[in-house]
UniProtKB/TrEMBL annotation:
Residues 308-421 form the Mur ligase C-terminal domain. This is UDP-N-acetylmuramoylalanine--D-glutamate ligase. HAMAP family: MurD. It is an enzyme of class 6 (ligase). It comes from the Bacteria. It holds the Pfam family MurD_N. Residues 108-286 form the Mur ligase central domain. It comes from Moheibacter sediminis.
């Protein structure tokens, strides 16, 4: 008799898991409380996979042998608690997919810089001629890639929510970029619980694997004293010389493990101190994989920045517009404001995730001319920054936000969309928010 696989959530990861389950002989049923996109619905119909949308039929779910849960469904959801009480295993799509491939996995997690670093690692490996797939939180789901499993390497961007539900997932190289407060609403507002979920990226690694981590991140370094990893630990640092790791001085990045590699920071295509750190992590992984030095150097100089991450859009009337819609937490916005070299009109707001804006106050005082709030509830932003800038306005649509920012700006200023919040109050996702921003700029 076939094992019953139930997929909760019919987005990219859910449909990928359904296809992989079908390929490996499961009786597959997919359930989504919302409405499925037409492309996903058509895929399920074409592959004769049973599904429902708009509701969950509990009796069709609670008889599962295995459940693959969308990362967007909270661990405390009633249905998940019921599955737990019946001892029905609930795993993430990342975990499920990893069971059906022997390829080497390079997995990247962290509060900030995941997409940039994952894309950069993929770029280096592609330039080196390796057979590599890109997935996880970026591009296709891991499960969708593993359906055909034609790659020798997978480079995956992975969130804490995906790591919460892993059991045996074991990357060859795990990269932990940083741990700063994010998604705390899902972790009882405790940074340590969120941090420990990030560390699940290394819990199944062996002495043959590698754990690349940020030596400058205090939370990571403290937890490493408590959480054992069997992997070979490779630190990187902007501040401390690393004999068995990677470090930066004023001009160069020095990769010292397993081979010595010297890289000129002035030749990196990515700008900003935070991107030097991301580049160090990527170069360290490439060096472990024995990529040729000249390939690494060339790849770091010709890599193009990720869409929605400090993306220059247009200059209108002497005002430059920058799209940083992917900045969904305070720390990401800190880096964006830090990198501004002009007076800035800052568009901020959305769904708050337990944000503490106090770290931004010195940068706002120094660099921000005006604040445009873009969200349904801006009370926290207003109370944090009122009196620090001459103008704070509230808007409820991207059209109004862009027009207000343009009116508040002066020649030589920058309008920066860096929301520090999730997008779900007014937009489908951060991509939708960024795309609407770019569209409204062109409509000015």
């Amino acid at each position: 008799m076939k094992e019953r696989l139930v997929i909760l959530g019919g987005g990219e990861s859910g449909v990928g898991a359904a296809l992989l389950g079908k390929k490996h002989g499961f009786e597959v049923f997919l359930s989504d409380k919302g409405n499925l996109k037409d492309e996903y619905k058509n895929t399920l119909i074409e592959n004769s996979i049973e599904f429902e949308e708009g509701f969950h039929t509990e009796e069709k779910i609670l008889n599962a042998d295995l459940v693959v849960k969308s990362p967007g469904i909270p661990k405390k959801a009633d249905l998940i608690l019921q599955l737990n009480s019946k001892n029905i295993p609930v795993v993430s799509e990342i975990e499920f997919a990893s069971r059906y491939t022997e390829a080497k996995i390079i997995a990247v997690t962290g509060s900030n810089g995941k997409t940039t670093t994952t894309s950069l690692v993929y770029h280096i490996l592609t330039q080196a001629g390796l057979n590599v797939g890109l997935g996880g939180n970026i591009g296709k789901s891991f499960a969708q890639l593993v359906v055909d499993d034609v790659y020798d390497y997978y480079v995956l961007e992975i969130s804490s929510f995906q790591l919460d539900d892993v059991a045996t997932f074991k990357p060859y190289i795990a990269i932990l970029l940083n741990i700063t407060p994010d998604h705390l609403d899902q972790y009882d507002y405790k940074l340590e619980l969120y941090a420990r979920s990030k560390f699940k990226i290394t819990e199944n690694q062996t002495h043959e694997d590698y754990f690349v981590y940020n030596f400058d991140d205090d939370t990571t370094v403290e937890l490493l004293k408590e959480i054992n990893t069997n992997a070979k630990k490779i630190p990187y640092s902007m501040n401390t010389e690393m004999q068995d790791g990677t470090y930066a001085d004023d001009s160069n990045v020095h990769v010292n493990y397993p081979y010595e590699l010297k890289l000129s920071i002035s030749e990196f295509s990515l700008r900003g101190r935070h991107n030097v750190a991301n580049t160090m992590a990527a170069a360290t992984a490439a060096n472990i994989l024995k990529i040729r030095k000249d390939t690494i150097k060339r790849s770091l100089s010709d890599f193009t920045a990720v869409e929605h991450r400090l993306e220059t859009v247009l200059k209108i009337g002497g005002i430059e517009f920058i799209n940083d819609s992917k900045a969904t937490n305070v720390n990401a916005t800190y880096y964006a404001l830090e990198s501004m070299n002009t007076q800035t009109v800052w568009i901020v707001g959305g769904t708050d995730k337990g944000n503490d804006y106090s770290d931004l106050i010195p940068l706002v005082k120094k660099k921000v001319r005006a604040i445009v709030c873009l969200g349904l509830d801006n009370s926290k932003i207003l109370s944090a920054f009122e009196g620090l800038v001459d103008n704070i306005v509230e808007t409820k649509s991207m059209q109004d936000a862009v027009r207000a920012a343009y009116m508040l700006g002066k020649k030589g200023d920058t309008v920066l969309l860096s929301p520090a919040c999730a997008s779900f109050d007014l937009f489908e996702n951060y991509e939708d928010r960024g795309n609407q921003f770019k569209k409204e700029i062109k409509n000015l």
